[in-house]
Structure formats: C-alpha cells, structure tokens
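From the shared-data thread, chain only:
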Amino acid sequence: MARIYRTKCRTYILEYFQLHKEQRVNASDIFTYLEKNNKKVDLATIYRNLEKMTESGTLLKYKTADGESCLYQYVEPHANCMEHLHMQCRNCGKIIHLECDFMNEITNHLFKNHGFLLECKNSVLFGLCENCR
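Structure, as tokens:
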C-alpha cells in the first residue's frame, strides 16, 4: 500500500469527517463546508483525496442506489466496519453500526439456509433512528 502523506487538504477533509463521524457524505458536502470555512480546495482535489483515503482504509465508499454518485463514511472509530451491517436514518442521516451478536446469527443463517455469504463492506439498511421516529 502506498504511503499517504498528510497534506493541508487531506487534513481539512479529515477534520470534516471527524466532525461528521456517523454520517455518509459526498464530495459536494465537503466542498461546501470547506468553502464556508474559508478553506479553498477545488473539487477535483477533494475527489483525489477521497479515493486515497478510501484506498488507505480511512473511509468507506458507497455507491448510491442509482449508481450515479458515491458517498463516503469515516471508519477509524469503527475499524471493523467491514464485518457488520450499518443502519442509516433516512431523516437525519445518522449511521448506526450493528456491532452485536445478531451479526453472527444473521451471517450463519444466510449461509446455512440460503447458501449466501454476506459481505458487509457496503451494506446499509435504511429506516428511522430512535430520535426521528
């Protein structure tokens, strides 16, 4: 894996993700935030950094349902994000990590009863969180 250098732009993006740890965001969200905070970074540079941060494992990348764009999520606080499902509130956008014994139960059930090997890396269940219900 190539070494990831800490540039000013990458630092700005990382700061943004640390403020939005439990959300999936797109490059435009980051661009708008940086622009409002007088941090001049062009959109192409943001995309380049998002790809590098995804390759390094700092971010997870999700394609939208229409396949037209991508969303990114900060994963360092949840280093095992590839091993569990995620739930996202359709109202507020909060991400909830399904890190419980249920993951073993559902994974085993799907494999045993359906011959299906679950890959959690980009899996998201949508609904309403406790606060938005």
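The first strand starts at residue 59 and ends at 63.
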